[in-house]
Amino acid sequence: MSAATATQQRVPPEAILALAVLGVLAILIIPLPAPLLDGLLALNVAVSVTMLLVSLGLSKPLEFSVFPSLLLITTLVARTIATQQPACLILSPLLTGGKVFK
Question: Does residue 11 sit within a domain?
């Protein structure tokens, strides 16, 4: 495989960022089960710790120039999951006909 075809098959970073934003919107619209939300929250914490370790190990700030955008997206995902998960757990008995308060 030549170098020209290897660069043509690469996904642009803008597309990854757009998919991340669409993923956040999908979390808001599509009801996800609680274990999946827990997994997404754990993945978000892992990404946050990785970002912290990478930023501590850099000698020049420009080596991690995507940091503000990445911080914004991960914060948006974490806040979305953290606000949707309790609401889903509270409202899910209502969808099945159960009572929330006894």
Answer: no
Tell me the C-alpha distance between 39 and 1, whole Å: 37
Residue 94 host element (H or E):
helix 67-95
Query: At which residue do the structure tokens 């006894």 appear?
Result: 102
Is the pTM for the entire model greater than 0.70?
Answer: no
| Number of domains comprising the chain | 1
In-domain check, residue 41: yes
Query: Three-state DSSP class for 54?
Result: helix
Domain encompassing residue 76: 37-87
Q: How confident is the model at residue 98 (pLDDT cuts 50, 70, 90)?
A: low
pLDDT in tens, 45-61: 898 889 889 888 888 87
* Helix/strand number for the chain, H first, E second: 4, 0
